[in-house]
């Protein structure tokens, strides 16, 4: 079944933040000194003077064209600005932007200099200074300066950018230009995450959006003005919001950097956007594009077959990955009165029969999600530890007593469990919340029937309709009417941005080291901020207090305890009916492509293909 991503217009740009946090000079209490990399916890894997990352091929051919399809739910685009809220950004725009630092894919919470050639963290942790590589250049040939970095930061924190940036960078007090190539970020508080967040700020030229007469297009109105970034690719051509082609910048400044050797090997990267999943799959089988990352188990088993697969022209392979899975599920909007009561939300969770879905629809290829941090040591289990209790006990009067017990388990229908037993429990919870069955429907004390809508999009992956249909049949047994509605990408984005939905299917991107992004997802302030990632409307002073523990953790142990506490509270809040995850990346690709023999540990399949694969020499000139 489709792995969903949050469909925020700024989501492509958040990749910069993820790189800073996922991928590293360990900053010490004293003294401050300049280094090539910083680590949030521990030491960077790669020492100063390293030649390249272990998971790349430094001798990979640098030619050929990579053709890709929709990388997300996007079926069309209407702008080249990935940092604003309105509109649909073209895929691949992250190829044009860089940040002061970048991460590696075989360690977490590490940032190596990219635009910056050294990094200095103050002894008290209240500021970080970056020196910009004098060779760094924008696509127009201008040098990257401290003024450009400051302009980018202040623009992204302004109301002209998507509101999430003001959350992500909210603890950065200001950017100070020390000299033309040196910038210092000063923080409101000293946390181990802040230097990495500052290093992950996307940088663009202050000339982007400048008219010939010197006047400036407001940032939130920049649409098809080509970005002026420092990344390895340029926009070559585009057509009707459905195709876009990038070409590698022949003058790219950073090609010889250790963090770039063996990366971005294709001379051209093209995207073709298809209107529905069937058309996209058939186009791949017809040879219209090169790589299909398959999120649909049914397609992987039953539909990703044919003559080109049989002949070896198209290859299917599952690649292991160690990413945290993120949370995918049916998110309930607790701003709606219908979902205010936690007992109602738990009852809805009991009505999803994952074991039946896995057998009948997914070919037993999935595992159930039972945490916001599955597949990592950040997942809470059993009862709270002493470290967790130190965080939870001061909040005891604000928390459900269940938080202090065993971690909740997702409903199971394998014997001795059964759907009937789960629905009986659900009915009891609904009755406690004031919902009883009468006159042919489940009704509240006012006589209003329990009716809600699941909102889903029409493209970008397999429809959730078969899942929703099975879920709806189980809900009918409780007297609940669930309506399933599909709309196009642009409309669903607007509705989610304004929180105009009952329930929707979403996947929150995974993170290896939780931090400020959790505030955007679950913080009370974000619940009232249109366009935020807090889709469920979580608004809890207790959650806010735990989030502060997450972002202020000074050791890995403190981070684990705080994240366990957060996971425990959120799972007991039943804000989501969790879905499922795969332990592998399923990738089908043309036999004209090759990839390094050493795989990274933490990666997204699409980004891995784009950044480290190459065209075999015999096929490079296609």
TrEMBL record:
Residue segments, region Disordered: 517-536
Annotated Solute-binding protein family domain residues: 112-523
Annotated SUPFAM superfamilies: Periplasmic binding protein-like II (SSF53850)
Any one annotated GO CC term: outer membrane-bounded periplasmic space
InterPro entries in alphabetical order: Peptide/Ni-bd (IPR030678), SBP_5 (IPR039424), SBP_5_dom (IPR000914)
Alphabetical keyword list: Signal
GO annotation, biological process: microcin transport; peptide transport
Protein name (record): ABC transporter periplasmic substrate-binding protein
GO molecular function, one term: peptide transmembrane transporter activity
Keyword Amino-acid biosynthesis attributed: no
Source organism per UniProt: Caballeronia hypogeia
Lineage summary: Bacteria, Pseudomonadati, Pseudomonadota, Betaproteobacteria, Burkholderiales
Signal peptide positions (record): 1-34
């Amino acid at each position: 079944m489709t792995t969903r991503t949050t469909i925020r217009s700024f989501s492509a740009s958040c990749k910069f933040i993820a790189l800073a946090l996922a991928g590293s000079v360990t900053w010490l209490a004293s003294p401050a000194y300049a280094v090539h990399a910083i680590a949030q916890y521990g030491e960077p894997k790669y020492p100063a003077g390293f030649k390249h990352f272990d998971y790349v091929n430094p001798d990979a051919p640098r030619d050929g064209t990579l053709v890709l399809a929709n990388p997300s739910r996007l079926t069309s685009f209407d702008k080249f600005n990935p940092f604003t809220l309105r509109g649909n950004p073209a895929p691949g725009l992250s190829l044009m932007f860089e940040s002061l630092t970048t991460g590696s894919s075989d360690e977490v919470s590490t940032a190596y200099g990219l635009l910056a050639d050294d990094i200095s963290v103050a002894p008290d942790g209240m500021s970080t200074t970056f020196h910009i590589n004098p060779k760094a250049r924008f696509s127009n040939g201008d040098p990257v300066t401290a003024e450009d970095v400051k302009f980018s930061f202040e623009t992204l924190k302004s109301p002209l950018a998507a509101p999430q940036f003001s959350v992500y960078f909210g603890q950065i007090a200001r950017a100070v230009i020390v000299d033309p190539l040196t910038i210092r970020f000063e923080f409101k508080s000293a946390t181990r995450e802040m230097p990495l967040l500052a290093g992950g700020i996307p940088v663009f030229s202050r000339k982007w959006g400048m008219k010939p007469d010197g006047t400036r297009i407001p940032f939130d109105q920049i649409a098809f003005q080509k970005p002026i970034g420092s990344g390895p690719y340029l926009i070559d051509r585009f057509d009707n919001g459905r195709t876009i082609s990038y070409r590698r910048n022949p003058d790219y400044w950073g090609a010889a950097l250790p963090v770039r050797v063996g990366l971005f090997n294709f001379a051209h990267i093209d995207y073709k956007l298809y209107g529905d999943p069937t058309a996209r799959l058939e186009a791949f089988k017809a040879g219209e594009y090169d790589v299909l990352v398959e999120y649909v188990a049914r397609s992987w088993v039953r539909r990703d077959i044919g003559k080109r697969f049989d002949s070896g022209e198209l290859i299917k392979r599952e690649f292991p990955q160690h990413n945290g899975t993120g949370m995918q599920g049916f998110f309930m909007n607790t701003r709606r009165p219908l979902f205010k009561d936690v007992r109602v939300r738990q009852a809805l969770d009991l009505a999803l029969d994952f074991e039946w879905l896995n057998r009948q629809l997914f070919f037993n290829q999935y595992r159930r999600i039972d945490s916001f941090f599955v597949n990592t040591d950040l997942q809470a289990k059993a009862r709270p530890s002493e470290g967790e209790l130190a965080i939870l006990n001061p909040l005891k009067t604000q928390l459900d007593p269940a938080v202090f017990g065993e971690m909740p388990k997702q409903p199971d229908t394998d014997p001795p469990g059964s759907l009937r037993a789960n629905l009986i429990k659900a009915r009891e919870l609904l009755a406690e919340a004031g919902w009883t069955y009468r006159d042919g429907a489940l009704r509240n004390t006012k006589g209003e029937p329990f009716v809600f809508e699941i909102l889903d999009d029409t493209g970008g992956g397999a429809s959730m309709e078969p899942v929703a249909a099975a879920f709806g049949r189980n809900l009918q047994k409780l007297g609940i009417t669930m309506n399933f509605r599909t709309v196009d990408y642009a409309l669903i984005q607007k509705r989610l941005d304004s929180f105009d939905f009952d329930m929707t299917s979403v996947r929150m991107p995974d993170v290896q080291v939780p931090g400020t992004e959790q505030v955007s997802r679950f913080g009370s302030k974000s619940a009232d901020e249109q366009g935020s990632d807090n889709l469920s409307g979580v608004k809890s002073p207790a959650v806010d207090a735990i989030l502060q523990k997450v972002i202020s953790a000074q050791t890995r142990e403190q981070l684990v305890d705080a994240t366990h506490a957060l996971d425990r509270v959120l799972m007991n809040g039943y804000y989501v009916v969790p879905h499922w995850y795969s332990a592998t990346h399923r990738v089908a690709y043309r036999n004209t492509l090759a990839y390094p023999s050493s795989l990274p540990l933490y990666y997204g399949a699409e980004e891995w293909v784009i950044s480290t694969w190459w065209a075999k020499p015999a096929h490079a000139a296609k």
